[in-house]
Design brief:
213 residues, Serine Threonine Protein Phosphatase 5, Tetratricopeptide repeat, 2 domains, 0% strand, repeat, Regulator of microtubule dynamics protein 1, TPR-like_helical_dom_sf, TPR repeat, RMD1-3_a_helical_rpt
């Protein structure tokens, strides 16, 4: 039983470090590591707590909410990009979406572009390239919000919050604190539009607790 938990813990750590949007909250990962050590020392079973803390997988979340109508109208290459992103094949995902960068005002495509460019930026080891990609993703998700229409676009708000946090990390702690209320506002708006997205709930809950402390 204990060896099974060791394997789970190792796989879960790897998932946290490569998973988006969770990757932008390093303190969240550190909290998990701290908890993991406590469980290993006590010999207790932390698997259920981990699933309770982080909720369902993206695949399970998609089954919870009603399939959105826009899914049916997305171009085949954008749908294919979603499949690549699902398996975190970022380069393949970006290659399919890159042609839309200067040619569309469709928010469903723009936030997807912003998402993959943000993740590519977070994976960059060169600080300047990382910064360029993060700011580029910010411009794209801002454009998505500008074109969301009266019905709103929950994913654009979610990714605006995530990317704005990444910008704050680049600019420093003071900048991140100044952006905190705006980030929180957009996470809340995302949940107004789609209350079924467990990841947004987790991020919002953690974000509020992080800045209260």
């Amino acid at each position: 039983m204990k060896s099974l938990f060791f394997r789970f813990a190792s796989n879960f750590n790897a998932f946290l470090l490569r998973s988006s949007p969770r990757i932008f909250f390093r303190p969240f990962h550190q909290a998990w590591v701290k908890h993991q050590k406590q469980v290993l020392i006590s010999g207790g079973g932390g698997t259920m707590l981990a699933w309770t803390l982080f909720g369902k997988s993206d695949k399970e979340e998609s089954k919870t909410a009603t399939e959105p109508a826009y899914k049916l109208s997305l171009p085949p290459d954008v749908q294919a990009a979603d499949t690549h992103y699902k398996y975190y094949a970022l380069d393949s995902c970006y290659r399919l979406l890159a042609k839309y960068e200067d040619k569309t005002e469709e928010p469903e495509i723009l936030w997807r572009l912003a998402r993959v460019i943000h993740d590519l930026g977070k994976n960059e080891t060169d600080s300047e390239k990382r910064k360029q990609k993060i700011y580029k993703s910010l411009k794209l998700v801002e454009k998505a919000l500008q074109n969301e229409g009266p019905s709103g676009n929950w994913a654009a708000h979610k990714w605006y919050a995530i990317i704005l946090n990444a910008v704050g990390e680049i600019e420093g702690t003071k900048s991140l604190i100044k952006k905190a209320n705006e980030i929180k506002t957009h996470l809340e708006r995302a949940l107004e539009l789609n209350p079924y997205d467990a990841t947004t709930w987790h991020v919002l809950g953690y974000y509020g607790e992080y800045f209260v402390e």
